[in-house]
């Protein structure tokens, strides 16, 4: 079963919107054993959509479109599908009644253009949209099938999960390909690839490296017979070769692993954030139920707040500025003590775009105060990619990962010396 | 000048990576008057890449590819371009020397497969990559031109800005299309579209609505003669019809507007965050130089921390739980006073996926304490899209926008009654 995706919308070609829908659909389909072989974006022009649908059906069994089903005049996917099928657009009375009812219930007047959402290519099946107004459509076309879904992510996802995926998975047959993603932090892509050369050489096994700021996901694919068994074998080798750098698999985030390790010890963490401005707290609280292990945080972005909120020595701040290893240590101790947490985790550094207190962009110190007398400060040297505002976002994101990774390693029982050594090696690696 | 984008990589089809490169390129090209007419993603297969390049050149003047130029064996764009051009891949000695030098400087051994990056289709021009190892390539092909760029965003962006955009813009001619994006918060897309019907009817003017959680960007496009003048006229009408809901244009973020308004008054804000866990602080500190107007923040995710860190009345928390308007008010006052800021901004609520203290997912209170006796609490009722973990991210993001928007309106001098009324209307709108 080969599937192509067709995303419709000028806003995607103009880059006002990133194509998150295609990524989500690709993942969900792969999980069900359905292969996406091509993904195309076109603008809001009926003729271009018709041509793209026909080309795609020449290569694939099914085409999934998103976008262009809304109420406004730039929503033209319905028109294009009618044209491709050589049928008329007809108003569906039941759909019209449902639209009028929804709007009346909200005490509003129906905008005349909203009735466009009740128009359907003759013969198309309606796919129930329990998350919004416009239903999806299924149109049989020249031996293939087109599923047209709304562009609003929550509506697209709902119709995918409730209708389209069950239908496609029924026709997909048993999985001939098995995939798993192993997540790592703290090692460079090139170092990982060199270490995994022997796994690359295993028959029927392919590796792909998906780098994110300060993280690398290694996707293992096993194709052919006994795919699951060979996948398990390859994963075992990958884990053995990468050791402590592996923190999880699949959708497991670094934050969720940290919460699990804290929970196992009955411990909590409090965070003190300077350059990240709240991102570490946001990452930790992205996990539901995190209030059991996340005590809270202090965002001390301005230098004076490091003294005021956390008790960092004012003389130290005057003499060295805010970007200093001892400041990171005192911030970690301060937040741990003031919030009554088991661990205190702190970051201070320069996110850019300009240097600060004479320190270059990318200078970052991560401080960790443990429940006893344990104190650690690491200085991951972050590469400075690109220029301007992009630096800032990447450095902040890398800092979040390095901080969570330091805490994870300490909780996982890697000796402090090893954490410090890894940080040093990391620095040399970056030259 | 028509340009198509071709992004190469299994990870994009599988949804492990979102196609941010295509969005960035589309934006940059549109700014220079170059129209992207189609954007295609294919996997790491040479034959498929060859076919996609040839199809694209049949429709467009230039094709920009990203991905597949790295050192590993799944990087096959070089091979595909050589095949499409009917030439051999030849090793470039200068490029090889540069690779060896880079690696030696970092004190590492050259991985044999890294030498693949020195292979070039015969006759291709090298595009300098000042941000990494693999250069871009320019290949003339059947009357058109292919620019091949690395998939690493910082490297792709550098080569685009330094080489490709200047070359393409030189051939693009004067801008026949003018575009502007007006940014709004707090109004629904359907309400905005209904209000702007008369602008839609202006000749040569097109509107597009780009909804984000709790924000809508309205993109105005003017095509044909005197595009700039007509764009200005349309923007004036849009602003008049949307009034206070417009907070900025183009890339201007809500956070940057809040900082500007605070700066004009010489005021600062401190934030107290519950369900957002640090996202409001992160958003405010995404703007460089924000330490002048952002005092700091307290992340009081656990209920007990609202009392401990902010002095919220313990009896109130015991009786009503953390999700209550009076809790939001006391959090705002508490953080303002403890951090010595002019304004205190606070949020408490239920991000999901499960209800909390008997309150449904999406219940949110935003508290604002002004420098004098001003106190405001709003209760934006947030629609609950989709299910499970997605809810959580969307509700948190909407809460950030509603909080910043409340502060913006107060700073911009909209009377408190109006803010409260807008919040009520907003609620009715959502039925």
Automatic annotation (TrEMBL), chains A, B:
NCBIfam families, sorted: cinA_nterm (TIGR00200), PncC_domain (TIGR00199)
Organism of provenance: Actinomadura yumaensis
- Describe the location of the MoaB/Mog domain by residue ranges: 4-171
Gene3D superfamilies referenced in this protein's UniProt entry, alphabetically: 3.30.70.2860, CinA-like, MoaB/Mog-like domain
What family is this protein classified in? Belongs to the CinA family.
Classification via InterPro entries: CinA, CinA-like_C, CinA_C, CinA_KH, Competence-induced_CinA, MoaB/Mog-like_dom_sf, MoaB/Mog_dom
Protein name per Swiss-Prot or TrEMBL = CinA-like protein
């Amino acid at each position: 079963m080969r599937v192509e995706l067709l995303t419709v919308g000028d806003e995607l070609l103009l880059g006002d919107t990133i194509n998150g829908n295609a990524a989500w659909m690709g993942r969900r389909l792969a999980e069900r054993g359905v292969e996406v072989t091509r993904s195309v974006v076109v603008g809001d022009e009926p003729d271009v959509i018709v041509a793209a649908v026909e080309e795609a059906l020449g290569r694939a069994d099914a085409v999934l479109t998103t976008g262009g089903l809304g109420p406004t005049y730039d929503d033209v996917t319905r028109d294009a599908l009618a044209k491709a099928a050589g049928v008329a657009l007809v108003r569906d009375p039941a759909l019209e009644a449902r639209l009028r009812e929804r709007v009346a219930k909200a005490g509003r007047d129906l905008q005349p253009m909203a009735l466009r959402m009740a128009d359907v290519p003759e013969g198309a099946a309606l796919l129930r949209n329990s998350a919004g107004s416009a239903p999806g459509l299924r149109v049989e076309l020249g031996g293939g099938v087109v599923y047209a879904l709304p562009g609003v992510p929550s509506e697209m996802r709902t119709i995918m999960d409730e209708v389209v995926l069950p239908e496609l998975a029924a026709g997909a047959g048993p999985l001939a390909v098995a995939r798993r993603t192993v997540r790592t932090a703290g090692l460079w892509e090139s170092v990982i690839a060199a270490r995994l050369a022997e796994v690359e050489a295993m028959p029927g096994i392919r590796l792909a490296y998906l780098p994110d700021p300060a993280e690398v996901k290694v996707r293992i694919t096993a194709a052919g017979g006994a795919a699951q068994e060979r996948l398990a074998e390859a994963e075992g080798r990958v884990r053995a070769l990468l050791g402590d750098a592996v923190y999880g698999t699949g959708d497991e985030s670094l934050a969720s692993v940290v919460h699990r390790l804290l929970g196992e010890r009955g411990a909590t963490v409090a965070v003190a954030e300077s350059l990240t401005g709240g991102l570490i707290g946001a990452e930790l609280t992205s996990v539901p139920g995190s209030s059991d292990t996340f005590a809270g945080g202090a965002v001390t972005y301005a230098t004076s707040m490091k003294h005021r909120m956390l008790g960092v020595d004012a003389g130290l701040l005057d003499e060295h500025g805010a970007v200093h290893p001892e400041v990171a240590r005192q911030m970690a101790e301060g937040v741990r003590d003031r919030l009554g947490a088991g661990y205190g985790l702190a970051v201070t550094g320069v996110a850019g775009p300009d240097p600060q207190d004479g320190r270059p962009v990318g200078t970052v110190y991560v401080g960790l105060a443990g429940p006893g007398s344990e104190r650690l400060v690491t200085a991951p040297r972050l590469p400075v990619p690109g220029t301007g505002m992009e630096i800032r976002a990447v450095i902040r994101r890398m800092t979040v990962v390095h901080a969570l990774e330091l805490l994870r390693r300490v909780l996982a029982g890697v000796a402090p010396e090893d954490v410090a050594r890894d940080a040093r090696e990391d620095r040399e690696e970056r030259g």
